């Protein structure tokens, strides 16, 4: 083990020194060693990658597809992504100039925020929201302007958006949206999106719309923000959630050519390009008829799990906005327990061997809530709900 005579950490990026570890992973790590724990913590599909998608990756390897790919991704993947976005959501992109394949949606988020923001810029962040956005914004020296959507059933209203614009004006560089939402599972109707687009239309605010859960909606089709405001919107998508391909690390970023060109430059400096076998698999997932149907069976299973967990927890006294997408339950902890969300989640893990994430991990509006991922087998969910029932009856 190397010894360090000086505290060199004080010479690091000062923005990085102020960043705290992600509570999702830190809490998950904290409870992982509890014997017999059922972890409903991480947002990762429990399904296997479809066989025909795996074979596409294998074929890429067997064909010695081992050289550098074009920086924005293979032509086949970008064409498949353009076809997917047009076919599913009616949004049109030129695969040559308006689409970039990234190393997961995470890289797309990072590249986009780093390319868009300067020190001192302000980024609107409706919350509760995925905790990755805030640290990336801050690492670039920009400022997060949180908007608490909890009073509005976790939906950003045009009035809230207009009030923020009135207050901060031209200092606002971008707004970061995520729907269907992690952590709430809430999504937006076409009318709600159109109303927000109308507020933004006469501004220079860039809309960064993270739609990675777009294929996992229940009861209403996903509508992309780019459908109403394409000239100002950058759309993030990918295959991690739709095809259970989290480990393949392929994201898709689409938007106006002038913006995409600059973000592609950031992408080139960061990773050069995504992996060839992974891109071959993603092209198969997004570009074939069979790939379009892969998600249907997964979605049917998620819906069954959602309904079971939602009804069980509602009966136990939790207040829950019924999720219209993704695979999360965001539940308000009953006030009668007189516990913070962190204390509740830690107590539940230690005494009943069920692990969920405290709502404070997701920023303003998450206090007093918990997030449960139902991307787990029905058998595990039934055991977890039985344990939760016992916990609630004895506390």
Automatic annotation (TrEMBL):
PROSITE patterns: AA_TRANSFER_CLASS_1. GO terms for biological process: amino acid metabolic process. GO terms for molecular function: pyridoxal phosphate binding; transaminase activity. Pfam families: Aminotran_1_2. InterPro entries: Aminotransferase_I/II_large, AspAT/PAT-like, NHTrfase_class1_PyrdxlP-BS, PyrdxlP-dep_Trfase, PyrdxlP-dep_Trfase_major, PyrdxlP-dep_Trfase_small. Gene3D superfamilies: Aspartate Aminotransferase, domain 1, Type I PLP-dependent aspartate aminotransferase-like (Major domain). It comes from the Bacteria. It is an enzyme of class 2 (transferase). Belongs to the class-I pyridoxal-phosphate-dependent aminotransferase family. This is Aminotransferase.
């Amino acid at each position: 083990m190397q010894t360090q005579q000086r505290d060199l950490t004080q010479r690091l990026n000062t923005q990085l020194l102020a960043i705290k570890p992600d509570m999702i992973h830190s809490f998950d790590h904290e409870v992982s060693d509890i014997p017999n724990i059922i972890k409903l913590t991480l947002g990762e599909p429990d399904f296997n990658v479809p066989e025909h998608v795996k074979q596409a990756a294998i074929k890429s390897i067997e064909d010695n597809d081992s050289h550098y790919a074009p920086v924005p991704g293979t032509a086949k993947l970008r064409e498949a992504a353009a076809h997917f976005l047009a076919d599913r959501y009616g949004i049109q992109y030129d695969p040559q100039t308006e689409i970039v394949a990234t190393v997961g949606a995470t890289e797309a988020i990072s590249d986009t925020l780093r390319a868009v923001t300067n020190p001192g810029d302000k980024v609107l962040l409706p919350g509760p929201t995925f905790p990755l956005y805030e640290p990336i914004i801050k690492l670039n020296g920009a400022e997060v302007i949180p908007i608490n959507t909890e009073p509005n059933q976790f939906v950003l209203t045009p009035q809230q958006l207009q009030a923020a614009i009135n207050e901060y004006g031209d200092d606002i560089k971008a707004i970061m949206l995520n729907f269907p939402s992690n952590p709430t599972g809430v999504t937006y109707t076409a009318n709600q999106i159109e109303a927000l687009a109308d507020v933004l239309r006469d501004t220079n605010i860039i809309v960064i719309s993270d739609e990675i859960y777009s294929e996992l909606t229940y009861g209403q089709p996903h509508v992309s923000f780019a459908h109403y405001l394409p000239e100002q919107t950058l759309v993030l998508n990918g295959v991690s959630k739709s095809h259970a391909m989290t480990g393949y690390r392929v994201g898709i970023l689409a938007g106006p050519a002038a913006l995409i060109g600059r973000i592609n430059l950031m992408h080139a400096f960061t990773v050069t390009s995504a992996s060839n076998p992974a891109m071959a698999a993603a092209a198969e997932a997004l570009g074939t008829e069979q790939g379009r149907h892969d998600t249907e069976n997964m979605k049917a299973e998620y819906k069954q799990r959602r309904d079971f967990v939602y009804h069980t927890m509602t009966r136990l006294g939790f207040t829950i906005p019924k999720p219209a997408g993704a695979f999360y339950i965001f539940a308000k902890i009953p006030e009668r327990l007189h516990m913070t969300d962190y204390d509740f989640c830690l107590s539940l893990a230690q005494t009943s061997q069920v692990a969920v994430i405290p709502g404070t991990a997701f920023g303003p509006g998450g206090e007093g809530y918990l997030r449960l991922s139902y991307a787990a087998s029905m058998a595990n969910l039934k055991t977890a709900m039985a344990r939760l029932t016992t916990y609630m009856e004895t506390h």
